[in-house]
Write a structure and sequence with these properties.
Elements: E1 5-6, H1 10-16, H2 26-30, H3 35-39, H4 47-64, E2 67-68, E3 80-82, E4 88-92, H5 95-104, E5 116-122, E6 125-131, E7 141-147, H6 164-173, H7 180-185, H8 189-199, H9 202-205, E8 207-214, E9 217-218, H10 221-224, H11 230-241, H12 245-264, H13 266-269, E10 271-274, E11 277-282, E12 288-293, E13 297-300, H14 321-334
Antiparallel strand pairs: 1-2, 3-4, 4-6, 5-6, 7-8, 7-11, 8-9, 10-13, 11-12
Helix pairs in contact: 1-4, 6-8, 12-14
């Protein structure tokens, strides 16, 4: 799902149409003594309670009359929802990500991650409220780079069960990939995950481009998944920069700041960071930023191995985060 979502609701537009758009939420205060407000109060309910209700209703209408900056490049559909306030989004709560965001509060890395607004429940489902990283951008170009030599938890691939459904997925991507024996028995989840990572640059460079949208035009997901060589990654990042040397310089400065924070972060020194991404955002006006996102596979680890390759036999917990970060920094310098 990609693009800009126009938050518009016919009922809301009708109920708000009598107020000038620029007044927004303030209008209910300015007109608090208007006859309709006091008269509408049900018996036994205070006028201030009704005023608060009207204020919230007008706030909803105000935001629904404006374009909501929203691009979901990757991830599970339905995992995100818009919030009333465009400065925030709601992401369906995950125990690991919730714990990671809480642990990041007060850490030197906190400014480089989405703002954490706490938890909220909608229709019985818990959501994490986090900063909308596209707020303030106009017609944003966005790139998601997944960092690390491994994008799955060791616990997820511990099973030795042979699965025909994963064999079917592998065959659909590359009919020549399975061995003759695998065609008969199926493959393990570890085999499938490692196969997927060899298709991209994760195995070779320790990072991959997960998704990309340049000024509203999305790159093909099937093509993005098969970007594996450094040269191909370099060409794709150059396409993302679109000749904007000023944007590149801003990204490089931000990357230096993030790297310095990683080196001294208590959080980074005590967590295995798997499946996390760097989200690059810029617009035509020259606004640019990078944030670390996606902590759903980040777990506490006493001595995380950020500079080592993962050993599938030893299960050494290595995420190789800094290997990927260093290689990405090098590619951007050449872009």
């Amino acid at each position: 799902y990609m693009g800009s979502v126009k938050m518009a609701d016919a009922e809301c537009m009708d109920s708000c149409s009598s107020e000038p758009e620029e007044q927004g939420v303030v209008s209910v205060v300015e007109h608090a003594d208007a006859p309709g407000v006091a008269a509408a109060a049900p018996k036994g309910e205070s006028k201030w309670a009704i005023l608060r209700q009207k204020s919230l209703q007008l706030k909803l209408c105000f935001h629904k009359q404006h374009s909501y900056p929203w691009i979901q490049l990757a991830g599970h559909a339905g995992g995100f929802q818009v919030d009333v306030d465009p400065h925030w989004i709601l992401k369906q709560s995950d125990a690991l990500e919730k714990a990671a965001l809480q642990d990041l509060q007060g850490d030197i890395l906190e400014p480089f991650t989405p703002k954490f607004g706490g938890l909220t429940v909608k229709e019985g489902v818990e959501f994490v409220q986090m900063g909308n990283l596209l707020n303030g951008f106009k017609d944003a170009s966005v790139m998601d780079c997944k960092i690390g030599v491994r994008t799955f938890l060791e616990a997820d691939v511990a099973s030795s069960k042979l699965r025909l459904d994963l064999l079917a997925k592998m065959t659909e991507i590359d009919p020549s990939a399975p061995t003759a024996a695998e065609r008969e028995t199926g493959i393990t989840k570890l085999r499938y995950m490692q196969f997927r990572e060899t298709l991209s640059s994760t195995s070779a460079l320790g990072f991959r481009i997960e998704a990309m949208n340049v000024a509203g035009v999305a790159e093909s997901k099937s093509d993005i998944k098969k970007i594996s060589s450094r040269d191909h990654v370099l060409a794709t990042i150059r396409k993302f920069f679109n000749g904007r040397e000023d944007i590149k310089a801003k990204f490089q400065a931000r990357i230096r700041d993030i790297r310095a924070a990683l080196e001294t972060s208590t959080f980074f020194a005590t967590h295995e960071v798997v499946g996390s991404s760097l989200l690059f955002v810029y617009d035509s006006r020259g606004k640019a930023d990078i944030h670390i996102i996606d902590f759903g596979k980040t777990i506490p680890r006493e001595h995380p191995l950020h500079n080592e390759l993962w050993d599938a036999a030893a299960l050494n917990h290595a995420d190789g985060y800094l290997i990927g970060f260093t290689n990405l920094t090098s590619v951007i310098a050449d872009a």
